Amino acid sequence: MAPVPATAAAAAPAAVVSTHEIRRAQRADGPATVLAIGTANPETCVPQDEYADFYFRVTKSEHLPELKNKLRRICNKSGIEKRFMFVNDDVMEAHPEFADRHLTSLDARVEIVSKVVPELAAAASAKAIAEWGRPATDITHLIFSTYSGVKAPGGDRLLASLLGLRPTVSRTVLSLHGCYGGGRALQLAKELAENNRGARVLVACAESTLIAFYGPEVGCNDTIIGQALFGDGSGAVIVGADPVGAVERPLFEMAFASQATVPDSEGAITMQHKKGGMDYHIGGGVPEMLAGSIERCLVDAFGAIGVAARWRDLFWAVHPGGRRILDLIEEALGLDNGAMAASRQVLHEYGNMSGTTVIFVLNELRRRFVADGAEGADWGALMAFGPGVTVETILLRVGSGLKGN
Ligand SMILES: CC(C)(COP(=O)(O)OP(=O)(O)OC[C@H]1O[C@@H](n2cnc3c(N)ncnc32)[C@H](O)[C@@H]1OP(=O)(O)O)[C@@H](O)C(=O)NCCC(=O)NCCSC(=O)/C=C/c1ccc(O)cc1
């Protein structure tokens, strides 16, 4: 070890600063705040009323008409008008093995998604950064969430380089959180922003069904329901505390965040990468399970911050896991059926894009607030659900950037 020069010893601080004081100085003053939102989707758009024809054609499964009719029935009840996806005729011509999940195809799928998913995230992030108004190099932390990331270095590294983030950006990957990935990522962003003065956290969620796209099979209803509901997309959010006055626009303040696991629910939603793509199961009772759990999460969250909230007075950013989930949650909370209009709109326009969907809902809410001059609710709740069964709750307050528009 080199000897310590006398000058370095002489430069030691005269007064001893405690680590508590150092810690206090590192913390932000205000709450984490959503400062910008961007979204992106792949080019291929499939209308829901054409989906059964598309799916049975590209997977060469026309010999299974009963399953095709079942898919049609579910599509008709889904509340979805169209979806965007990377899977198209060209992909299936190049990779006919994707149609049969008993064939080995994971390597080829990972090869594709490890490029296109971060690129999609970059498209959404670039929109968020442009709206934010500061250079990409001012991003201090990156949280990348996807169920397609099974490789290292991962999509976070490619995303950071596509956006030109600084080499010291602090990267975190969330994988396989499924439909609660966006909620988890936003909660982590809140912790980072509030605990690191000046931090600006880019949350990027990107999902592609390509990793889980395969043909129908008699007896496997999970595949049919998945084919009726899921789509591809990316949502990006910039989160920071203490917004810089003239540049940054506070959209939603994040007042509180929590996670809960629904008891006895371990097998209700599952996802697992296998040789033929990502296998998944969506239990029949999931909408009822969520509707039965949601009020407890809200009571606990508002109780923790001492705010007396009436559900009817809130704005809602709920993950539209399926039309029935929204219906039952509205019923359980005694809400009008317009309360989840932003969630229903996103479901209608894009389907369930898993973890990224809740960011689209937040963007739609923002659009509605701007259009209405932020009339109405001041407090709101963002809720996302996924495997576990896990419920993410974030309490939001309309930011000053949305007031007076
Ligand atoms: C729109 C639905 C699908 C149907 O509407 P409905 O009002 O319930 O209508 P029905 O009661 O008439 O049901 C229509 C058909 O759907 C069937 N179905 C009804 N849920 C089911 C069911 N979980 N299973 C398999 N058949 C069912 C149901 O049996 C019935 O079949 P059939 O009698 O032959 O017409 C509705 O049930 C709904 O919104 N369900 C919520 C779906 C749900 O739980 N989503 C949350 C989980 S999301 C998730 O885990 C994501 C994983 C994921 C995985 C892969 C990815 O690429 C991306 C993500």
Description of the molecule:
Pfam families: Chal_sti_synt_C (PF02797), Chal_sti_synt_N (PF00195). This is Chalcone synthase. One of its GO terms (molecular function) is acyltransferase activity, transferring groups other than amino-acyl groups. By secondary structure, this protein is of the alpha+beta class. The chain folds into 2 domains: 210 residues, Thiolase/Chalcone synthase (Peroxisomal Thiolase, Chain A, domain 1, 3-Layer(aba) Sandwich), CATH 3.40.47.10; 148 residues, Thiolase/Chalcone synthase (Peroxisomal Thiolase, Chain A, domain 1, 3-Layer(aba) Sandwich), CATH 3.40.47.10. Helix content is 40%, strand content 21%. The chain is built from 13 helices and 13 strands. It has a 9-stranded mixed β-sheet, with helices on both faces. A hairpin with a 3-residue loop joins strand 12 and strand 13. The longest helix has 27 residues. It is globular. The structure holds p-coumaroyl-CoA. The site of p-coumaroyl-CoA (WCA) has 26 residues, from helix 4, helix 9, strand 9, strand 10 and helix 10. P-coumaroyl-CoA binds next to helix 4, helix 9, strand 9, strand 10 and helix 10.
Number of domains: 2
How many β-strands, per DSSP? 13
Reported CATH architecture of the largest domain? 3-Layer(aba) Sandwich
Helical amount among residues, as a percent range?
25-40%
Beta percentage is 15-25%
CATH homologous superfamily label of the largest domain: Thiolase/Chalcone synthase
Helix/sheet category: alpha+beta
CATH class of the largest domain: Alpha Beta
Residue-averaged pLDDT: 94
Domain Chalcone/stilbene synthase C-terminal: 253-397
Domain Chalcone/stilbene synthase N-terminal: 21-243
GO biological process, one term: polyketide biosynthetic process
Active site: 179 (acyl-thioester intermediate)
